[in-house]
Amino acid sequence: MGYGSTVMIFNKEKRLCFFTPTKNGTHTLHKFLRTMGWYTINPFNHAYPEVLIKKFPNLVNYKTFAFLRNPLERFESFVLFFKQKRQEELQWVFDEIGITKSIQDFSYEDMIDLIGKLPNRFDVFYAPQSKWMTFQTTEILDFDNFESELRRIAGVTDMPVPRENATTDWGKSVITDKVRAFVREYYAADYALAQERLGKDW
């Protein structure tokens, strides 16, 4: 479920655990909390809470957290991630479907049209964040306060939080009204959570 080294991460002594939606700073979170003595378990990459609880029933006794990011920013991050860091996989999809446009010129609107045609293994990268926030007891954290929230939960005040796995401007596209409308509809549950739990209206 997912790619790379981002895994389930928890603190057994303090009984704390993070659920990690994709494209929400998971690589940074993972590296930072590991330096604080937190533990990871493979292969539960970006696993949904129900999967983790079934495998590790004791997690019901843990305090759980998850970051919630502006869905429009997250969608852009998802597209840029595949354009910049998963080019071979994206090119394979292009070849299978018959897309002749270059990866660099592939727009956010183009990705909207591609969703639904992508292999199932891609699903986790653009799934609504709410799928990781199904437990009412999970504390939802504002991604806009990413560093300060990480420090608060880790119990440190001055430890640097170096960013990992960040994308660049290469291949950026225009965020059009079509993109905004798609994101608003597709991630409606995320927008509702932001209003309900964070008091934010992105």
Topology:
Layout: E1 8-11, E2 16-18, H1 26-35, E3 39-41, H2 49-55, E4 63-68, H3 71-85, H4 87-97, H5 108-114, H6 123-126, E5 139-142, H7 146-154, H8 177-186, H9 188-198
Parallel strand pairs: 2-4, 4-5
Antiparallel strand pairs: 1-2, 1-3
Order of helices and strands: EEHEHEHHHHEHHH
Strand residue percentage: 5-15%
Question: Can you list the strand order of the major beta sheet?
Answer: 3-1-2-4-5
Structural class by secondary-structure content: alpha/beta
User: What Rg, in angstroms, do the CA atoms define?
Assistant: 17 Å
N/C terminus separation: 28 Å
Which term fits the overall shape?
globular
Largest sheet: 5 strands, mixed
Helix content: 40-55%
Low-confidence stretches: 1-6
pLDDT averaged over residues: 91
> How many individual helices?
9
What is the number of strand segments?
5
Walk me through the structure.
The structure is a single chain. By secondary structure, the protein is of the alpha/beta class. Helices cover 42% and strands 10% of the residues. It contains nine helices and five strands; from the N terminus they run ββαβαβααααβααα. The protein has helices at residues 26-35, 49-55, 71-85, 87-97, 108-114, 123-126, 146-154, 177-186, 188-198, and strands at 8-11, 16-18, 39-41, 63-68, 139-142. A five-stranded mixed β-sheet has the order 3-1-2-4-5. The longest helix is centred in the middle third of the chain and has 15 residues, at 71-85. The chain is globular, with a radius of gyration of 17 Å. Residues 1-6 have low confidence and may be disordered.
